[in-house]
Known about the structure:
Layout: E1 8-17, E2 49-51, E3 58-65, H1 70-82, H2 89-107, E4 115-124, E5 127-140, E6 145-147, E7 165-176, H3 185-199, E8 204-210, H4 214-222, E9 226-239, E10 244-257, H5 272-280
Parallel strand pairs: 1-3, 7-8
Antiparallel strand pairs: 1-4, 2-3, 4-5, 5-6, 5-7, 8-10, 9-10
Helix pairs in contact: 1-2
Amino acid sequence: MTHSFTSIVLVVLSVFLCTVHGFKGVYKRDLSVASTRSARFSPLSMMFGRKSSSSAVASEIVIGGTEDRMDIRRTADFLTSAMYDEMPRNQRKELFELEAKDLSNRYSETLGGRLPSALILAKEDGEILGSVGLDCQVRHKKLDRLRDLRKTESLVDFLDRDCKEEICVVLANLAVRRDRRGQGLARNLLSFAEEQAKVWGYEYLYLLVDSTNEPAQRLYKSTGYKEYFKDDSATCVVSGKSQLQTVDCVNICYRKRIAAGNPMAGGNAPGALGLFRGLFG
């Protein structure tokens, strides 16, 4: 960008949920992949500069919190454009509403404030360049399945070492605008999300990706994520001749260890800090 001042703002919407709703397994065909450098920064605050080839003025990346609910709809519009192929206008509108509802349920609504969630946005001059989200879900330890936390469930039950399920944090909605890919932004968003999950006290970070999305899988593998299990019972939304359709698909769960385990729990208590905050915070 010539003779201009570029400001990129990564905005974190940190909110708390007591349950997670919304559709799952949506077929996000064009998940962005950025393959260059990553930056190290704190999940609480960050400022660093980037100089253009024709200007000595450095742009600043700032991380801050916001409760602007309009960002949810802006992100839904961004994801609909950035992550899906062309489709009829009526289907795109319907897909936008599905995205907006899902994002709102996961990252916006406060339903008791028991567990944390965050929507992380990369912005330039107010325009969204990229996004990634974090929310807490329930993982069955033996069956290797993720599910939403039910509103009636008690968090105390998950503190029992003999419990067959555990609370985990799941990463989703990673995307970068098409014209800004290949600049390391996806890796920066991943790094920030990982640091945020560490602050919450989680040992592992999980994510689900469509088995046909090879570029995204290469990104995750290159940043330390390892294939954990396959979910062949998933469904996804695709464009049909006249309307959106729900079809079967296979999701692959990847997992990355982001922090040392809790020695008081034998190293197997991811999210214990988050649970205690939810119970007593």
